[in-house]
Amino acid sequence: MNPLRKPILAANWKMHKTVAEAVAFAEALQEQTGPLTDREAVIAPPFTSLDSLCRALKLEGYSASAQNCHWEEKGAFTGEISTVMIKDLGCRYVIVGHSERRHIFGETDEMIRKKAASVFTHGMVPIICVGELLVERDANSTFDVVGAQLDKALEGLVSDLVGRVVLAYEPVWAIGTGRTATPAQAQEVHAFIRARLEALFNKEVANRVRILYGGSVKPDNVDALMAEADLDGMLVGGASLEVASFKRIVQFES
Ligand code: PGA
After folding, report:
1. What CATH number corresponds to the domain at position 155?
2. Which residues are catalytic?
3. pTM
4. Per-residue pLDDT tens for 66-104?
5. Dist. CA 74 → ligand 1 center (Å)
6. Of 102, 179, 235, which is best to mutate to test ligand 1, by the most ligand atoms within 8 angstroms of its C-beta?
7. Which of 58, 84, 96, 180 is the most exposed place for a label (fewest CB within 10 A)?
8. Mean of the per-residue pLDDT values for the chain?
């Protein structure tokens, strides 16, 4: 981490928790962890709990995120939720392009670009996910894959907005597998992403953007990961479902 960039510890609950469970979690986490000034805790519940969670997160330093969105404001898109509707709830962030959206639901780079742009248009901040498959890492194409995902997601955005983007590097082989990237492996890709931002925009933008790591983050590896210079936070799946374990991640020490 770098003191210039406020760390984000984000819980991606995926398809877990009812409204009552989500609210109980939010209350317990805030009660046990207290207000946060030097870091941010973000919770991304399923859409069904997003309204209640936005209301339940009251303390300084806590905010809610959607897990997905549609890029159009309204229309005949059965089953979809627009950024206008998400903004209406008081939500601050929207995760865009998570690998499960890309690989299970077939989202393309172009859809992800439109989603990220729409999140900005409606005054929220996209958490844009990038990451390579195991075969791509084994073929030494990690930088090509991540670089191309990044270029396409940010295409057409002005540097003022790009400086506010949150990126998440999530190697697909590390998600839900218990096989975390080592701090050095993560740092290598984060440094690559920051250099790419400098090449595409400028140094100031590159230094401002927060780049989270995701993929089997746990209470026992968060401190070592956060000690790396270009890791500015964590996007946490499995270990964010229990208050005790997510609390320890929010309270990382490095
Ligand atoms: P995991 O998921 O922490 O369960 O590996 C991370 C993610 O998918 O964001």
Report:
1. 3.20.20.70
2. 98, 170
3. 0.97
4. 999 999 999 999 999 999 999 999 999 999 999 999 999
5. 30
6. 235
7. 58
8. 96
